[in-house]
Amino acid sequence: MGVNLEKNRHIQVDPRTKMTNVKHVWAAGDIVAHSEQVAIAMGDGVQAAIWMHKSLQGE
Which helix (H) or strand (E) holds 32? Predict the structure, then answer.
């Protein structure tokens, strides 16, 4: 896909939107930051979903 990776091989995302460097590709949860906390992964997923919706509405 061509997404940028961190040194630890996690995907780099915008901390606010969770969007990767590839347009319309978001990432959240353990693939972004290995927190091993379900609540944080769920929150990241919700945050990404909000920005997906906003992004797709604007087109």
Answer: none
The beta-strand segments (E) located in the chain are none
Structure confidence by residue, pLDDT tens digits, 2-32: 999 999 999 999 999 999 999 999 999 888 9
Give this prediction's pTM: 0.80
Residue 36 in contact with residue 29, Cβ under 8 Å? no
What are the domain boundaries of the chain? 1-59
Rounded Cα distance, 38 and 58, in Å = 31
Q: Which amino acid is at 23?
A: K
**Taking the CB of residue 31, how many other CB atoms lie within 10 A of it?**
15
**Across 45-49, average pLDDT:** 94
Contact 19, 50 (CB under 8 A): no
